[in-house]
Design goal:
Helices cover about 70% and strands about 10% of the residues. By secondary structure, it is α+β, with helices and mostly antiparallel strands. Helix 3 runs antiparallel to helix 4.
């Protein structure tokens, strides 16, 4: 019977949880398992705590010819079972296999340290880049604010003299009004005097004209009397 080692999901919706089982490769996905070999929890972030395997039973089924899926093979590589199976396939005895597995464990620790160091370096680089961007943004904003302060300080003194000159103009305006009023009153006085003088001159002329006809009538009457006497 052809068997396969694969993962069988049993978690609820959006909360996956898997069992590592041995099943007949002809069985349906959720069919009955021959044996349970461990479990895998992808929601657990710690790689050392998100799985558990029965290593001896996994090696037994591998010796029986069970095939692994790609996901299970990657999981076996993480635990070292894939490497142990590879060494046993080469014909090494248990002592040599154990020696090689110790080397593999040390190398794995070094690899994990290198990975953690790289992750820490990337985090530091991102933080430094973010700090530099923040500093650059602050430097770009600072020159824009300074000219505004300078212009405000320059404009402030210009407004003060204007405020001082406005009362002066208000003071000068009444003086100009008084001068105009004085000139207008003087002109009115002159015009009144001229009118009075013209009226007096006209009165004198009218009086003279009244007296002149009276004298002429007297002279004409005298001449008429003389003519009458001469006729007699």
């Amino acid at each position: 019977m052809a068997t396969k080692i694969r993962l069988k999901r049993i978690g609820r919706k959006n909360r996956p949880f898997y069992r590592l089982v041995v099943m007949d490769e002809r069985a349906r996905r959720d069919g009955a398992a021959i044996e349970q070999l461990g479990w895998f929890n992808p929601l657990e972030l710690d790689d050392e705590k998100n799985y558990a395997l029965k290593q001896d039973r996994v090696l037994h089924w591998l010796q029986e010819g069970a095939q692994t899926t790609e996901t299970v093979h990657n999981l076996l590589k993480r635990t070292g079972l894939a490497y142990r199976w590879h060494l046993s396939q080469q014909g090494l005895d248990e002592a040599a296999v154990e020696k090689e597995m110790k080397k593999w464990a040390l190398e794995r620790e070094e690899v994990e340290k290198i990975r953690t160091d790289k992750v820490a370096e990337k985090v530091e680089e991102k933080q430094k880049a973010a700090e530099k961007e923040a500093e650059a943004a602050a430097v770009e904003e600072a020159p824009e604010d300074k000219p505004a302060d300078v212009t405000e300080s320059d404009e402030a003194p210009a407004e003060e003299p204007v405020a001082e000159e406005e009362p002066k103009e208000e003071k000068d305006e009444p003086e100009a009004d008084t001068d105009v009023e004085e000139e207008s009153s003087a002109a009115e006085d002159k015009a009144a005097k001229e009118v009075k003088e013209e009226a007096q001159a006209e009165e004198e002329l009218t009086t003279e004209q009244e007296f002149e006809p009276a004298e002429e009538t007297d002279e004409s009457s005298e001449e008429e009397e003389k003519d009458n006497k001469s006729d007699e």
